[in-house]
Amino acid sequence: MVRYFFIFLQMFTVSLIVAQTENCIDDIKRCERLMDFQADSLFAEKNLYVNYVVKATNWEDETTVSNVQMHRKKDQLHFFSEQVSIYSDSKETVMVMPYQKVLMVSSIENQKANNKNIGDNFIELKKAFLESCEVVKCENITDGVKIIVLKNNPEKNDNSLLRITEMTYELNPKLGTVISVKINYTTDYKVKEITTTYKEYSEESSYDFLPVKSYISDRKGNLLTKFKDYEFIDNREEVASAKKNSQKK
Hints:
This protein has helices spanning 2-34, 108-132, 236-248, and strands at 48-57, 63-73, 76-80, 85-88, 92-97, 102-107, 134-142, 145-151, 164-172, 177-185, 193-203, 231-234. The protein is α+β, with helices and mostly antiparallel strands. The longest helix is centred in the first third of the chain and has 33 residues, at 2-34.
């Protein structure tokens, strides 16, 4: 009788651990879905604003910090950090890189194709990680705030593309918000860890999206004087040339 009791207790404990693990992963998925900033997300019709800080540390323990502000509504996106400013609409994307003094314009058709491949691959890899990882910690630290530590399970996921060893989430399931995410990478990756801390995520009504070209050129189409020393790269010409050549064939 005692033997059966211990067997039952063991089965109950395993079931409880599995349930807790699934609940922790579900909390992550739900919070990330509610904070999805993509054009095809649940909130695509809203004018959204997000402010976050990205801290990247390489294997020499050198750290780069980026303070990011992003505005989005449907196909319109404005992204600002110390390293780059991006203005994008349904037709074109403009990238301004002040340190390199480079100004780049791309057609959104080409940009979407590249971003889709990169984005889809990352989403699938991250999904595979969440489905196969080991939950090594999942606990409430304050009222409503939870810490979840995920570790790669090499028996279920070789991780050769994503190169993540561990992810640490700080989130608030009650509010449906991610507070921070720390990602630790394998030694063959270019950085050791990246931590993203979200400062604000909200809906706004006062932000105006102007035509993309107005941020870099005047009404006559001339580049603004502040960009006179910049290298100008127009990737739209490459796309147009490729289309023209394909039509000839």
